[in-house]
């Protein structure tokens, strides 16, 4: 089976440069989507193992404060109870393995990641950037 090589460089900020998503595209991508802010809800944090079922009953503001101190959450939207995961200085998600460029919590990843690119800034398209 012949492998198709895609030479494309999407601009994360310009969704019109994104490629139409198709199965297998992630295999050669440098994980551009993992540099976008990831919004999560409390059930995601429980699945990820950073909040336990008992703690989930506590006020979200208190949970957010603890996770911000731990470097897991960068921001908390009080009005909508949405947490934004922290990112590294290069904008990589803290759960993205720097060497393999794969999610280190793939089976426990949040719904935002599970549903990308079906939902997101440009549904059905991804910010593909060929892995170097």
Characterization of this structure:
By secondary structure, the chain is of the alpha+beta class. Helices cover 16% and strands 11% of the residues. It has three helices and five strands, in the order ββααββαβ. The chain has helices at residues 42-48, 60-69, 111-114, and strands at residues 19-20, 39-40, 73-77, 82-85, 125-126. The strands form two sheets. A three-stranded antiparallel sheet has the order 2-4-3. A two-stranded antiparallel ribbon has the order 1-5. A hairpin with a 4-residue loop joins strand 3 (73-77) and strand 4.
Largest sheet: 3 strands, antiparallel
What Rg is obtained from the alpha carbons, in whole angstroms? 16 Å
- Main β-sheet, spatial strand arrangement: 2-4-3
Average pLDDT score: 92
Which overall shape is indicated by the principal axes computed on the Cα atoms? elongated
C-alpha end-to-end distance: 23 Å
**Counting H and I runs of at least 4 residues, what is the number of helices?**
3
Poorly predicted runs are none
Beta percentage is: 5-15%
Helix percent reads 10-25%
User: What are the secondary-structure elements, in order, as H or E?
Assistant: EEHHEEHE
Secondary structure category? alpha+beta
Total DSSP E strands? 5
Provide the fold topology.
Blueprint: E1 19-20, E2 39-40, H1 42-48, H2 60-69, E3 73-77, E4 82-85, H3 111-114, E5 125-126
Antiparallel strand pairs: 1-5, 2-4, 3-4
Quick summary:
Helices cover 16% and strands 11% of the residues.
